Amino acid sequence: MQLGVGARYKGGVAGTRLILVGIGVSAVLTSLTNWQLSEAQTFDTQAAMRWLTGSLNNASWNGVQLVLVAVVVLAPVLLAQWRNLAITQLGDDTAEALGVRVSRTRLILVVAAVGLIAFATASAGPIAFVAFLSGPIAARLVGPGTNLLVPAALVGCLLVLCSDFAGQWLFDARYPVGVVTGVLGAPYLIYLIIRTNRTGGSL
């Protein structure tokens, strides 16, 4: 739905338009989810809330196999577009002048990324802030001018594993991995907002 609305407008799939449509779609789906939870049985509600928080407690090999298939199919699509992705960071007009079809590239990247996220979320729930944290961490580790897709993916995996270990073993109570990543990611988001307000840049 989101991609369809974005693609129907003149100018193709614009980043701001996708974000705004995504916020609207997310609000509608969140309302439907809350309604379903209010109508569900107590046991089903508890299981759903654990999944919505983001948890590896109920992970299974069937879920791992599905995620592996998605990675094998969709990861090469992302890797094939990394040069175009790097060029689009210069701005849409500059990228178009350099021969990159920005709308087409953005559409391919969004479809592939959403596919990977969908399979990962179906397996473990929406684990918060992993992508938000792994990209900047990978950029600091490997430096500028490098393909960040693989390093960011590896950092994300390590972040999830370490957060799950911390949530299960470092505290008196056990916490889902999504709680730990949320505690780590929220302060970083606040820091970025403060820094952006001071410098006048963008996130």
UniProtKB/TrEMBL annotation:
It holds the Pfam family FecCD. GO terms for biological process: siderophore-iron import into cell. One of its GO terms (molecular function) is transmembrane transporter activity. SUPFAM superfamilies: ABC transporter involved in vitamin B12 uptake, BtuC (SSF81345). PANTHER family: FERRIC ENTEROBACTIN TRANSPORT SYSTEM PERMEASE PROTEIN, FERRIC ENTEROBACTIN TRANSPORT SYSTEM PERMEASE PROTEIN FEPG. Belongs to the binding-protein-dependent transport system permease family. FecCD subfamily. This is Iron chelate uptake ABC transporter family permease subunit.
